[in-house]
Every structure is written in structure tokens, then in C-alpha cells.
Amino acid sequence: MAKVATAHETRAFETDGIPARERLLACAASIFAKRGYAGASMAEIAAEADISKSTVFHHFGSKRALYLAVIETAAQDFAATLETVLEKTGPLDERLVDFQCQHMGHILSNELVTDLVLRELQKSQSTESVHLVRDVLSANFMRLVDFISEAQSQKLLNEALDPSVAALTLISANVFFFQHRKVLKHLPNFDYADRPQPYAKAVIDVIFHGLDRDRSE
Amino acid sequence: MAKVATAHETRAFETDGIPARERLLACAASIFAKRGYAGASMAEIAAEADISKSTVFHHFGSKRALYLAVIETAAQDFAATLETVLEKTGPLDERLVDFQCQHMGHILSNELVTDLVLRELQKSQSTESVHLVRDVLSANFMRLVDFISEAQSQKLLNEALDPSVAALTLISANVFFFQHRKVLKHLPNFDYADRPQPYAKAVIDVIFHGLDRDRSE
DNA sequence: CTGGTTACTGACCGATCGGTCGGTCAGTCC
DNA sequence: GGACTGACCGACCGATCGGTCAGTAACCAG
Fold it and tell me: Which domains occur in chain A, in start order?
């Protein structure tokens, strides 16, 4: 039905106003995120983008190349969305809550990209694509560590604790919640499955105040 | 070279003394864990188990059935290895450290099984295989929550904090370390990439004592 | 008008996929 | 010995995989 006389007429429509190449990248990202690299087929990606399989190979020479392009833009998106998270002022505990909540919000509102990035990070082999993602991640990680250790040297945070461990613990909590959010809904005694922001705040409560009984205020 | 005259002679050897079906399950688990469901091929699994592809289909009717069998045994193994982690006595902070270190130890010494279980949990669709794994997980999760909230009611832990959030934060830290242990090695300023047990202990330091400055003892 | 470039296509390729089939061989029970 | 069973195999199947290629329609430069 959308099929028109000539090839170019179809493109003239620029389905949904989006040029084919962009549409292709977006569809590929979605399908790679859903099915993984091996599970995604070029035919399905082409169909989703309403484009012929040959055209996919015209724009990106191979499946691998398409995947790399997808990962690259995903890593950039991921970096961009996280860019703003740490740029805040205010009381320290509020800033920690802010960071955790915003971080949670960002990965949730970019779940496709986050899925791709995490999937890539979990690979054991050190391929080109892993390097792309790793650099983005380590940059963001270092900024969080810097933030914490600076707060420590200003005597605002417990100096006895390793800042990198604290940073990783914060990130772990959010990432774990994100990765298993579907399963968490079926956990008994867990009230936060549908409330990511309160969960992020509760995590800060735990990590900031500590489990030790003396801190119950 | 291991090829012998008749089919049965080959089996009489029971390569490495392990019956074919078990060997098959083990090889399938390894390959599914490495390559994912779509990425694993029946031919490769058969070759790894030193068995013909037809024989794989003789024992398990389909790729999906083989995968389900693998997931089922993996979930059982996972449950079994975690069974002992919480059965300890002693001072509370020691028990927390104990739990975290043993939990870390168990997932690391069963990385194949853990990879499989985590991979399965991350799927968004709720398939039969997800249910298998989910039940195991929620049982173990509930026991950790019970432990924490019991300690709280005995005034041994900060009662103001949600026990399920605390439990998830502990688990998240270990799982995240496990999933990204390869990448963590390349993080600057992170000394724990090759030292999982000290990391687990450091996480307890953070979560037990809290980031708040007043707790620096 | 012409020649080159770019976007795009359907027809096609060899390889590999999951899965089937017919049959061999050894052990078991009667 | 004969009927039956279950483990096992090679050969083969249709479908799908990633990828190629010749060609066409539109655009732009001269």
C-alpha cells in the first residue's frame, strides 16, 4: 500500500519525514537491543526500516559495520545524556540524591541505548566495539569518583571509605534495578518495582546513612 | 582420531568417563553462556560434546528444549551453591562481610552458571525459562531480606532503612562487579578489579558504615 | 543532452541454520 | 534365535543467513 511506482518516489516521501539512513540506524538499534547481535537479522532490520535489504548493505557495508555504527551513536547518546547529571550545586546529601535520581531517570528514558551499551560491556572479548563503550563509561565513572573524593577531602563525606567503591556501589544499584526491572515486579516484599525514583532515593538513604544501628536518626 | 569403528564403541569409551547426555548438557551450557541462545549453533554444541548433531536431537527434541534443560539445571545449581551462604553465626558485621564475600565467591566460581542465569533474567519477555530462574532468585532474595529485617528488629541494624532496598544494594554490587569484571580492569583509579573478595568487603564498609562523614571511626 | 554520482532495488549466491530420516549397532527380555 | 529398544550416525531437507551484483531512477554538473 505504501509501495509506490518507483524507488525514488518512496524515498521522496521520506517515510515519516525521516531520511532513510537515520531511520535505519534507529531501527537497527532497536532490534539489536531486543535480540542481540546474533539474534538480529539484516532482513528484519531492513523490513522495520521499510527499506530493502540491499539498501542496508549500500549504507553500511556489513552487519558488523552497521552494528558498530549503532554502538557508536549509542555510546555518544549515553555520554551526552549523562553529561548533565553531575553538574549541580547545593547541600551534599541533596546532590547525592540528585545524582542517583537523575542517573536512574536517564537510563530509564533511554532504555534502548542503555540496553545496547550494557549488552556490549558484558562481552568477555575485547573487541573494537567494547573499546568504544568502555571509554565513555570510564570517563563518567571518573567524574563521579572525583566528586566523591573531593567531598571527602572537604570533610563532607566519610574519608575512611574508598571513593571508587562508593561510586561503583551507587551505579551498580541503578544498573541492577534497570536490568532486572521486569523481574523485580514479581519479587515479594519489594515495593519499588514500579517506582524507580523512590528506589534511587532509598538507595542513597542506605549508602549515605549506613546500615549500622547507631545512625538511625 | 578418537573416531572408532562403530557408534557403540565410541560410547563404550564414554569419553572422559562422562556419559554422553551429561557431557552434552555441560557443553551446551558453556556455549549458550558464551554465545547466547541465538549465537549458539547445534552443530557447534554437538562437536564440542564429541557427538553427532543428530544425537543431540535424539536426546533433546529441539534447540529450545535443550536450552530449557540447560537453564533448569543451571537454576538448580545456582540455588544449591547459594544455599549455604546465609547459614552462619557470629557478630553481625562479620556475618554481613561473610555473606557478601561468600556470595561473591560463589558467583565467581560458578561463572558459567551465573552468566546463564543473569542472561535469562535480563530478557524482557516472560517466557517459561524466565519463570524457572525467577523462582530461585526470589527465594534467595527473601532469605536475605528476612535476615536483615530480623537484625533490625533486634536493634542490630538501622531500622530506618528499607531491608529490601539494602538487600538489593548488596546483591547489585556483587552482580555488577561480576558482570563487568573484564571492563573494570581498564578503569583508572580502581584497585579492586582483580581482588573480588576485598571489593566485597569494601562494599560492606560503605553500606554498613555509610558515606556520612560522622561515621568515620 | 550527457555523463557521473547517489540512493535504491530485486534476483541471486554459497554457507549455515535447526531439524528430519533411514538405518546401524549393542544390549535386553522372552 | 527373534522381537524390541535406545543410543547413535551420515545424509539430507527447506529456510534463512549475510552478502553480491547488475541495473534503474533521480539528481546534478558540464
Answer: 7-61 (1.10.10.60), 71-215 (1.10.357.10)
